[in-house]
Amino acid sequence: MSATMEPAAHVSSAVRTDAPPAILLDKVNKWYGALHVLRDINLSVAQGERVVVCGPSGSGKSTMIRCINRLEQHQEGRIIVDNIELSDDLRSLDAIRREVGMVFQSFNLFPHLTILENCTLAPIWVRRMPKKEAEALAMDYLTRVKIPEQANKYPGQLSGGQQQRVAIARALCMKPKIMLFDEPTSALDPEMIKEVLDTMVMLADTGMTMICVTHEMGFARQVADRVVFMDRGEIVESGVPEQLFNDPKTERLKTFLSQILRGH
Amino acid sequence: MSDTAADPRLLRAPPKKGIRLSWADEKLRGIVWQVLVVGVVVSILWWLVSNTSHNLEVRRIATGWGFLSREAGLPIGEHVIDYNPTNTYARALLVGVLNTLKVAVIGILLATVFGTLIGIARLSKNWLLSRIAATYIEVIRDLPLLLQLLFWYAILQGLPAPRQSLNPVTGVFLSNRGLKLPWIQWQDAHSFALLGLVAGIVATIFYARAARAKQMADGQPRKVWPLALGLILGLPLLIWAGLGAPFAGDIPALRGFNFQGGLTITPEYFALLLGLVMYTAAFIAEIVRAGIQSVARGQWEAAEALGLQRGRIMRLIVLPQALRVIIPPMTSQYLNLTKNSSLAVAIGYQDIVSISNTTLNQTGQAIEGIAIIMAVYLSISLSISLFMNWYNARIALVER
C-alpha cells in the first residue's frame, strides 16, 4: 500500500550479538484485573537490533512495549533495559527513561509549547543542558526529520505527519540508546504515512536499537532484523521477516497475514 | 514585484456588495434589528429617568449628595479604620466598603487555596480522601448559602458567654463574643520589619529569575530556597533585631462582662467568612478537578517517557494547560463570592449594603444609597474581571 512496500534494499544491520542485550524480558506477566494481557513474554533485543512487533488488536503488543519504560507495570517476571532492572526504585526508572525514547500513536506533543520548545524541554530539565546547546541540538534533529522551518510554530499548526516527525525529533533530542514506536502511523492519513516511515528508515540506518509496533509490513521487510508476532498476550512466532511472512508456521499467523494482506 | 504588478489577475479587487432594499437581504435585516433594539433601550431609559424625576418632584424629595458630609450617628461594631458615630456618612460608608473588601479579599484567597486542595483530594487515588472530598462538594453545593450562613452564625452564638469562654490555649478565648487572640503592641520597628518582609519577597523573585536565566545559560540548576528563606525570614528578623527587638504582648483578658485587648475576630465576620469560603471552595474544587482532568493522559505519558519528574510535569506541562480551562470559571466564582458577601446583612455584619441601607433609612436618600451600593460592587467586580482577564490573556497561548 505505501511506497515502502517495494522490495527496497534491506537496511544494513548493526546488530551486536557480542554485547549484552539492550532489552531483556524474562517471563513477563501482566493482568488488567482478571484479564491476563501478557503471558510469559520472553524477548531479548540485541544492541542495534530492529524488532517489529505485529499482531491483531488486543494482542498485548502495545502493553508490552509500554512495560519497557514502565508506562505500564508488569506484575511478574523481570525486565532489564540497558543493564538496569526495572523495579520500584525511582532512580532506576529515571535512568531507564533517559535512555529510552518513545513515539506514540497520537503524537502527544505539548500543545502550549512551540515545536522547538517541545524538543528542548527534556534536554534542559532532564539532561541539564544549556538552553543554547539544547536549541542547536533540536534544530539539528528537526533538520534531519526535514521540518526545521516549523520550529517556531505550535503543534496545532502542523499536519499529522509533521507532528509525528516532531515527536520523533523530540525523543531523539534526549539522545536515547533505544527507541520505542507504538503504532506511529496508525493515526495518519495514507499520504502522510510515507514521510513518517521514511524518517524511521533513516533512523534505522543510524544503527539505533528499535522496537516498533506496526502493521506496515513493507517497513518490516525493509528494516526489521526480526519480526515478532503476538496474539492473545503471548509471543506466537518470531523470525526474520522473509521467513515469517513467506512461511508462517502457525495457523494464527497465517490468518493474521491473510487479513492484513486483504486489507491492503 | 514588477511581475506580480503586471499580472492583472493578482490585482482583481473583491466584488463590492451593495444593500438590496428587500427584507430577504441579510445586511439590511441586521441594520433594521439593531436600530429597533437601540430604540427600545433608549425609550426604556428615558421613561425611567423622567418617571423618577417626576415622582421625586411630586413628593418633594431633594436629591443630591449633601447628606454625605452630615454626622452619621450610626454605630458600627467593626471597623478597619478609626470610626465613631459622630463621623460623617461618607466615612461610615467608607468603613462599609472596607468591611466588604476585608471579607471579599480574604475570602477569595482562602477559597482558592481550600478549593484547590479539595479539588486535588477529589482526584486522589486514596479512596477515603476522594470520597470525603466528593461528599463535601455535594453537601455544600446543594444547600443555599443563606442557610449555611445562618447555621454557622447560630453555632457561634451557641458558644458560652465571655465569663465561661473556652480557653484551649493560654491567651486564646472562644466565646459568643467571638475569637480573641493574643497580639503584639504594634510599634514602628514592626512596620519596618513588615517592609523588610515585602522587600525580601521582591528580592527573592528577582533572584529566582536570575537563577533560571543562569540555568538556561549553563544547564546547571540552582537551589533557590536557601537564599529565599534567608531573604524572606532573615531580612525582617534582622531589621527587627537591629531596631532593638521590641516586643510587648497584647494579651486579651476578661474585664467585667467582656474582654479587653488582643485581636478580635467577631462572630459575624467569622460566620460570614467561613460560610463564603466553604461554599465557594466547593465550586472551585470542581473547577480545579475539571481543569486537571481536561489535560489528556497522553500528555503525562509523553512527559514521563521523556524522563521528566512528576512535579516538573505538573508545573511545566499539566498546569499551564489546565489553567486555561480553570481561569474563566474561576473569575465567575470570585465575582460570586464578592457579591454573595452582601448576605452579611442577614447575620448583622456591617458591610456596604448594611451601612447603605441604614443610611438611606435615616436620610431618605434611597436613590443615592442604591447608587452607592451599585457603584461599589461594580468597581470591585470590574477590578476582579480586569485582573483575571489580563491573567487569562497572559497564559492563553497560541495553539493554532
Helical content class of chain A: 25-40%
Query: Helices and strands of chain B: which structural class?
Result: mainly alpha
Relative helix content of chain B: 55-70%
| Anisotropy-based shape of chain A | globular
Strand order of the largest sheet of chain B: 1-2-7
What's the SSE pattern of chain B?
A: HHHHHEEEHHEEEEHHHHHH
Number of helices of chain B: 13
Task: Report on the architecture of this protein.
Chain B: This is Amino acid ABC transporter permease. Chain B: It is found in: Cell inner membrane; Cell membrane. Chain A is of the alpha/beta class. Chain A has 9 helices and 10 strands. In chain A, the strands form 2 sheets. In chain A, strands 6-7-8-3-9-10 form a 6-stranded mixed sheet, sandwiched between helices. In chain A, helix 3 (115-125) packs parallel to helix 5 (160-172) and helix 4 (131-144) packs across helix 5 (160-172). Chain A is globular and about 55 Å long. Mean pLDDT of chain A is 90; it is low at 1-8. Chain B has a domain at 89-185 and 248-395: MetI-like (MetI-like fold), CATH 1.10.3720.10. Chain B has a 3-stranded antiparallel sheet. In chain B, strands 3-4 form a two-stranded antiparallel sheet. Chain B contains 13 helices and 7 strands. By secondary structure, chain B is mainly alpha-helical. Helix content of chain B is 66%, strand content 5%. The model of chain B has no long low-confidence stretch (mean pLDDT 88). Classes of the chains: A alpha/beta (264), B mainly alpha (400). The A-B interface holds A 69, 71, 94, 97-98, 100-102, 104, 106, 108-112, 121-122, 124-133, 154-157, 167, 170-171, 174 and B 215-221, 296, 298-299, 301-309, 312, 316-317, 320-321, 324, 397-400.
What keywords describe this structure?
heterodimer; A: alpha/beta; disordered N terminus; B: MetI-like fold; 3-stranded antiparallel β-sheet; two-stranded antiparallel sheet; 13 helices; 7 strands
